[in-house]
Amino acid sequence: MARIDVREESISLDEPFLVEGLPGVGLVGKIAVDHLIEQFSMTHYANVHCEGLPRIGVYHEDDDELKAPVRLYADPERDLLALQSEVPVSGSGAPEFAACVSGWFEERAVTPIYLSGFPTEKDGSPEVYGVATGEASTHLDRAGIVPPRETGFISGPTGALLNRAVETDSDSVGLVVETDPQFPDPEAARALIQGGIGPITEIEAEVDQLVEQAEQIREQREQLAERMRQAGEDESTQAKPLGMYQ
To answer: Could you tell me which Pfam families the record lists for this protein (predicted)?
Structure first.
């Protein structure tokens, strides 16, 4: 049965932001969310059991506890949630997955921040753009985040989540960052945190480590990045110009 199982009922959150880290082009969302979870020592708060997710058990180095492949982490001090995923969401299961987690967000007054990469040849620091649903444009205005410069769309599971937010007129933010189309991109993940997540949530995160350890991060994430390249649009979240499809 599709559900989200809360493990830590004692944790109290008050209309938190949630940062989504599903794998996508450049792995920008996953790298950013993994970094926030580690830096803030966030607590494993809940397991996500929704349609569209593989029924597997995940284990980590030097840890004998099996984990669900998609999990929620919480930081009550910062009133922050993070969705961490070890695996892609299947294209066919993305709508069911989106309905499952979005319903839970709406019940608990969670404002999700959805992350996506825009594959391009970067010139200087990656640019970050924002879109919103419901009344969440106020967060973009407050943070000084501008909309994209051209018409386009966000595909993959994150696109399904944003489509669900449009359908239900619920509050959500979508952040799009310029990213390397072929390889894991820690620099773009840093730009997401510095230029998007941080200003919206009003948290301060140390991000120099993302660039200092860029090569190590790329090596650790390259296998997943290759899987996302092979999967194409169905499983890989990314932003694209709409003109390509007209």
So the answer is: PAC2
User: Please, are residues 42 and 206 in contact by the beta-carbon 8 Å criterion?
Assistant: no
Of the candidates 164, 189, 166, 131, the residue with the CA atom closest to the CA atom of residue 52? 164
Determine the Cα–Cα distance for residues 221 and 223; give it in Å rounded to an integer: 6
Q: Which residues contact 129 (CB under 8 A, 6 or more apart)?
A: 118, 145, 146, 147, 148, 149, 175, 176, 177
Q: Measured in Å, how far apart are the chain's first and last C-alpha atoms?
A: 40
For residue range 76-104, what is the model confidence (pLDDT) as tens digits? 999 999 999 988 888 888 999 999 999 99
Backbone angles phi, psi at 203, to 5 degrees: -110, 155
- Band (pLDDT 50/70/90 cuts) for residue 210 is confident
Least confident of 46-55, 109-118, 168-177, 214-223: 214-223
Please give the pLDDT value at position 244. Answer: 45
* 126 to 65, 120, 188, 200, 239: CA distances (angstroms): 37, 10, 6, 18, 14
Closest CA to 13 of 66, 65, 69, 75: 75
Query: Which of 118, 154, 119, 149 is CA-nearest to residue 133?
Result: 154
Per the CB < 8 A criterion, the answer to whether 129 and 179 are in contact is no
Number of separate helices (H) and strands (E) present in the chain: 8, 10
Domains and CATH numbers, the chain: 14-245 (3.40.50.10900)
Question: What does the buried/exposed string (b/e) look like for 121-139 if buried means 16 or more CB atoms within 10 Å of the residue's CB?
Answer: ebeeebbbbbbbbeebbeb
d(CA 41, CA 239): 30
Q: Are 78 and 114 in contact (CB under 8 A)?
A: no
